[in-house]
Amino acid sequence: MRRRRWQMWLVLTGFLFLSRLVAIPPVRAESVMLPMRDGVKLATEYFVPVEVQPPFPVIVTRTYYGRATKYTDAAVERFASRGYAYVMQDVRGRGGSEGKDMAFGDDGWGERQDGVDTIAWVAKQPWCNGKIGTSGGSALGLVQVLMAPATNQLAGQAILVACSNLYEQIAYQGGVPRKALCEDWLKAQKSEYVLEVWHAHPTYDAFWERQNVEPVASRITAPAVHIGGWWDIFDQGTINNFVTRQHNGGPGAKGNQKLIMGAWLHGPKVDPGDLVLKPNFEFGIGKYEDRFLDHYVKGDANGIDTEPAVQYYTLGDVFAPDAPGNEWRTAQDWPPFPTVETAYCLRADKSLATKPATTDDRLDFTYDPANPCPTHGGAELTLPAGPFDQRELATRPDVLVFQSEPLEAPVEITGHLKALLFVSTDAPDTDFTAKFVDIYPDGRQFLMLDGIRRLKFWKGYAKAEPVTPGTIIPLEIDLWSISLIVNAGHRIGLHVSSSNYRRFEKNPNTGEDLPGAELRVAHNSIHFGKDHQSALLLPVRPVKP
């Protein structure tokens, strides 16, 4: 049931409530095996209104989950009732389509460009007026992202929960394989063989460059709305898609992007993790998408182009009735306002303070890959996801827990978070993890964001740079983005370890990319002091005088 609901949400591309559905307007439905540039044919359905004279604006959805479902009818109703023709296609190797599924490898601007070829075909049909939009979420959003730099025939896109860089946001976050996400999703698609291809490219090389749209944003000409959540598997990717296109996009794209970030997982849930959100966490995503596409694809003068570019939900203490936050806000850009990068410095007494440590010290812990720290929440798809209480994990000897004094006033954190750790190990390689937690007055430690970094990629992901055992090096861990007001009386917390399994693959500490027969115990250290200011770096909104 859970999986069926999730697939429905992806196919309907938004929070499309079934209560909206009425009888499908009369349409002519046709099927075609559409040939791509290499001759492989993709199963494609198109639906053309019959009571109105063509041509029509067209919405295209390319899906991994099968076009022949009852939810296709819902999408047809959604668009045909507003004067669109609608096209749904099974991507290569999926559903009724020919070829081999390579998990997005043929959807961008490489040797095969299935999305581009499909859009070009649609544009030539007599029932198309030349205005083409795309819609879809997750995998259905990612195929939109990848086609955008390779075609100028798109009038608008509605992109839900999709990443911008497959290497850093799907396959190798922090240089570490995203084990549960990749293995479980590919297994569900019966495409486990793709893992062998991804594992053959552990560094950011030419293979991954063809699946990173951020550097090629200037080629994109399509307006788009980007929709994501703070605990979504593609949190940072959604923001990066918006920012790069909004500021660096080509004609038509630059300045015509919208961003919506909510307190969501990979879809809406009122009780993510161990929190219960305020009722106002909801947002009319389906209606907003419709208005966006109606303006840019159909040409309706509905005013959406003059509305704020960014709408985002700022979290707060969800239990205190008068706590600041827990509200929707608007802005013209992301980040929405200037912030001050505030360093909460780690201390040997396991405190966090805005004043740096003045004496050299360190804390040690032992990481045994035979007994990795288990995952409990975070930005996951197939594992329980969201802001779970971390107190049980905090008792493990391989987890260092740092916390501030209770806050005298609320601290507003909005933007991109990072942890800068000065680390050393006695192993050929290891990982370091960081979790940003909001510690409530009763002691509960809610995970807000987390990240990981492989030591041998401390200088970047293009090349492994092994660290001599015992050498102290600075290691930056990307925690991605959020908007949160940590209330007065709360503490700001940071958990540091070397594993978060199965969210991330465990490091064997041998220098190998994947665990094998040999698993080595690593003795790892976090350093503090004048020259080694390990810190949690928070984008804090300045307090008004």
Overall description:
With 545 residues, this protein is α+β, with helices and mostly antiparallel strands. The chain folds into 2 domains: 2-331, Rossmann fold; 340-540, Jelly Rolls (Sandwich), CATH 2.60.120.260. The chain has 11 helices and 23 strands. It has a 10-stranded mixed sheet with strand order 1-2-4-3-5-6-9-10-11-12, sandwiched between helices. A hairpin with a 5-residue loop joins strand 13 (340-346) and strand 14 (352-353). The termini are far apart.
Which characteristics define this entry?
545 residues; alpha+beta; Rossmann fold; Jelly Rolls; 11 helices; 18% helix; 30% strand
Number of domains: 2
Shape: globular
Distance separating the two termini: 52 Å
Low-confidence stretches: 1-22
What is the helix tally?
A: 11
What is the CATH architecture assignment of the largest domain?
A: 3-Layer(aba) Sandwich
Biggest sheet, in brief? 10 strands, mixed
Here the CATH topology of the largest domain equals Rossmann fold
Short description:
The chain has two domains: 2-331, Alpha/Beta hydrolase fold, catalytic domain (Rossmann fold), CATH 3.40.50.1820; 340-540, Sandwich (Jelly Rolls), CATH 2.60.120. The chain contains eleven helices and 23 strands. It has helices spanning 2-12, 70-80, 114-123, 139-147, 166-171, 179-188, 193-199, 206-209, 235-248, 285-298, 391-394, and strands at 27-35, 41-49, 56-63, 85-90, 128-137, 156-160, 172-173, 176-177, 224-229, 257-262, 310-314, 327-331, 340-346, 352-353, 361-367, 400-403, 411-425, 431-439, 445-454, 473-486, 491-497, 522-528, 535-540.
